Amino acid sequence: MRSKLASEFIAKTQWSDAEMAIIAGDASNRKYYRLKKTSSADTAILMDAPPDKGENVVPFVLIAQHLESIGLKPPSIYAKDEVNGFLLLEDLGDDLLAKLAPNGSEFDLYKAAVDALLHLHRSPLLETALEKYSAAEMAPLGCLSIEWYAQNAGGTGNAKAQLETALFTAIEATETATPVLVLRDYHAENLLWTPMFEAPKNIGLLDFQDARVGQPTYDLVSLLGDARRDVSIPVRDDLLQYYQSESGIDPDKFSANCAVQSAQRNLRILGVFARLCIRDGKPSYLDFIPRVWANLKQDLQHPSLSSVARIVIQNIPEPTPETLNLLRRKCPTNHH
């Protein structure tokens, strides 16, 4: 059914004669295909986002248009079918920061990504009001760590209300700056090196349809405290300092804000990765959990998270190989 709809969508564009090859799926239900014209070397990307699985391309279109208008580099949108969930997008290549960073250029690549964030944070917000990524939304999401990770890894769900209250308090107490557009999935697997364009367009933006209005440090700690790869400590520390001095946020408030935004994100990801395994049959995400845990433990050393840290230590099991095996055994793909 989707392939028929996709063919009908492509037939109405200049890409009707193109060959199509799948390039990626992600943690959602979206799939991506590369289209290559038979008559030339031109390529494009088809995003397949099925509405019946909860996907919606409208926010992607809205945010992409805004990012382009302020001088950043999302893929241009060549054609769209918002009803059936198809977009035909500019092909920005395959040079993900995650792929290039190990080759010795990590600092330069990550600095370009931080510069793109600084540009975003100095730009006006969308005229269309987006929901605020506030303590009221963030605190319950941090509790996914209890619901999906701890409860399936030998822990209990008893501390959920406690954790939510402690997180809410910490987030509210450390909010610093004027809210900005938060892209919410800003990390090296979602950023492309596009040096054919001048900075800040030398970073291609891919995954921003869940954007909200929130704290400027959220995307920064998402980039520098990556769940999927180890960012070298000197690069991370230098770029945190660089962002702080460029943004003018008070250093003490900045470090507290970074720690709390990062802790909430890492708690949420613990739960999301466990859920991807247990509910969605994607056990490979368990491999990232020890890194997420290590990042979380570092966040929790900050004094502004002392009550959150106490609840986490008492109620959320460390991801030992035994703990991860408990989760792995609950993955539906293991039951065939």
TrEMBL record:
Name of this chain's protein: Putative phosphotransferase related to Ser/Thr protein kinases
Keyword entries, A-Z: Kinase, Transferase
Matches recorded under InterPro entries: Aminoglycoside_PTrfase, Kinase-like_dom_sf
Aminoglycoside phosphotransferase domain ranges (all copies): 22-247
Taxonomy, superkingdom: Bacteria
GO molecular function, one term: kinase activity
Organism: Nereida ignava
